[in-house]
Amino acid sequence: MAILVTGGAGYIGAHVVAALTEAGHGVVVVDDESSGSRERIPGTPLELLDVAAPDALDALARIMTAHDVDAVIHLAARKRVDESVGVPLWYYQQNVGGLQNLLTAMVAAGVRRLVFSSSAAVYGETSQSQVSEMAPTAPVNPYGRTKLIGEWLCRDVARTGALDVIALRYFNVAGAARPNLGDPAVMNLVTMVIERLRRGLPPVIYGDDYATPDGTCVRDFVHVRDLADAHLTAVDALADGRVTGFDAFNVGTGEGGSVREVVERLVELSGSGVTPVIAERRAGDPAAVVASAALIGDRLGWKSRADLREILDSAWAADAPRFGTIPAGVSVR
Known about the structure:
Structural class: alpha/beta
CATH topology of the largest domain: Rossmann fold
Strand content: 15-25%
CATH architecture of the largest domain: 3-Layer(aba) Sandwich
Radius of gyration: 19 Å
Number of strands: 15
Number of helices: 10
Helix content: 25-40%
C-alpha cells in the first residue's frame, strides 16, 4: 500500500514511517517541520505543508492523487496541554481545522482508510484505575477536547460511508527505537526527568502520599516502537476489512509504572546518585491511570512488548550523546 503520514517527521511519526517502510509499504510524508525534521526520515518523500493552512485542502488532495495513496495516518497536531489552555482558538484551528482539511481532501481524492491519532486525554480525570474504551469521555483541557471533537468528526464522516476510520487513543508514549529517534520535546515525565538530570538538577516528584504501592502516581507507559506497530496493525485491519465505519482503541500496556520507579531508574542510568525532590501534589492528578488494552488485542491482535525498564533505557540511550557515555547493559538499537 501507499500510505500518507501527516506529521511523519516528528517523534512518533518517524517511528511510524520506519515501521511502515520496514513492512514494505510506500510512504509519503506531509509535515510543516515545526517540531519534526526530515533528517529523521531519510529516503522518504516529504511534502512541506501545514495541514491546517487555508490552501492545504487542495494541496493534500493533489498529493494523495500524485502518490496513489491508499490510506492515511494522521499524526499532525499540536499537543501541549498548557499551551492549549493559553491559546485555545489556535488549538482548535490547528487540530480540528487541520483534520477537517484532511478529511475533505480524502473524500475528494477517493481515499477511504484513515488511522487517526487520538489520545487518552479524551477520558479526562477518570476515577477508574484501568480505563476501557467504554469509559466516559470528558476531557478537561482544550487539547483533549480537540481530540474528542476529532473523533466525533471522523465518526460522522464514516457514517456517510465515505471513510473507514480507526482512532488510536495513546496513553504515555516514551522511549526510542534507535538513538537518533529520541523524543526532543520536554513535555512528559520521562523527558522532563531526563532534562532535569542533564542540567544537574534533581527530578521532582509531585506527591508521594497517594493510595498506590509506593505513594506516587501510577501511569501506563507504552514504548513508541510498540505504538508504531499499533499503527501498522490498524492500517492492515482497515485494508483487510476487519474494521469498517469507525472504531476507537486504547494503545497501552495494561500495566502501571509509578513515578518513583521512573525517576529511580533514570537516576540510576545517570549515575548521579541525586535524591529526587518531593513536592506537593498537583491539582487534578489521579492516583492511577492504566489502559485496558483488551479490546485492541481481541479485535486487532495487537499487544505491547516492551516493559518499563526497556522504555526508560531506550529513552536514556537516545539522549545519551548529550551526557557522554551510555551505561553498560543499556541497549542501543
